[in-house]
Amino acid sequence: MYNYFENSKLIALCKDLLQASGCDELTTNSVAEGLCEASLRGVDSHGIRLLPHYLNSLDSGRKNGTPKFSFTYKYPSIAKLNADNAVGLAAGRAAINEGMRLADEYGISAISVHNSSHPAAMASTALFAARKGYLVFAYTNADALVLSENGTRPFFGTNPVCFAAPRRKEEPFCLDMAVSKIPWNKVLLAKNTGETLPDQVIADKYGQSTNDPIEASSLYATGGYKGFGLAAMVEILCGVFSAGPIGRELKSMYGAPMDKGRDLSQMYVLMKCDGAVSESLFLDRMSDLSDMVRSEPSQEGKKVMLPNDPQIENMKKRLGSGVPIDLITVEQLSEKTSEFNLKMPEALN
What we know:
The protein has helices spanning 7-20, 25-40, 51-60, 88-106, 122-130, 184-193, 225-242, 279-294, 309-321, 327-339, and strands spanning 2-5, 70-75, 78-82, 108-116, 134-140, 146-147, 154-156, 161-165, 173-177, 202-203, 209-210, 218-219, 264-272, 323-326. It is an alpha+beta fold. α2 crosses α4. The protein is globular and about 50 Å long.
């Protein structure tokens, strides 16, 4: 069961709660916009349902709502950001802003982030720059959740791979995928809603497939060994490159003490879209690519879609009918609004 809310009112609610928790302006705006955009795009597992957990972790000291960001540089277009235990979306926004500045000067930039926390949907950060005309690669490591190939327990996290590119007069292209068949937050959402999950998606504590999200101990990698290999690649770009914790060294999002930071790492690589051809020609060819793929022959009752096309459709639908929030999350948000003497927006249904 779900309640439906206007997107603008959810953004306002998130900002009010984050400000009441003592967050600075960058943290308030980046977290509220990032979580609500994920929900609006239909990525409910990484949307507003995370806000109660974020608020609890801000209160307990795991996350820092007023971080003092510090950049260091060994090479002109490569920076390392000490995120000062910031909320991951705030660290990502700070990194992407610096990445755009450096890319404007050098054509390409790379920002390594350490001492951060959960960055929610990587698309929320990557799209921020893609809408301004940049090509963006975005990665983060995460605590061990992906069942190792031929193993009985996880080593790597869901370590998402995200790429976004600008388009003319429409939302950017955006691929944002966990290296697992589903993200762990979708397992948690299934627990909230009482759903079962498909075969060969989650594994129990013995490394055996199960359909019950309550029994889930790890996730199957997408594409088997290929997904496992992608997880290793992301770990190198994030944890190894920044000299942060890796694999099973990383603290669990939900199982570790809430007063200790998690020290996750992120990596952002940005390129100007006119690095090889003019910006106009690049955007023309992006339009050609999008039109060609979407006009490919499709199966009956279906259509060929590019990454982000389903999310764009969700955005249009939910801007009209409202954003669905599961009842457990609604209850948690209501408790938080009462705690801060705020008012929960009225549901549309």
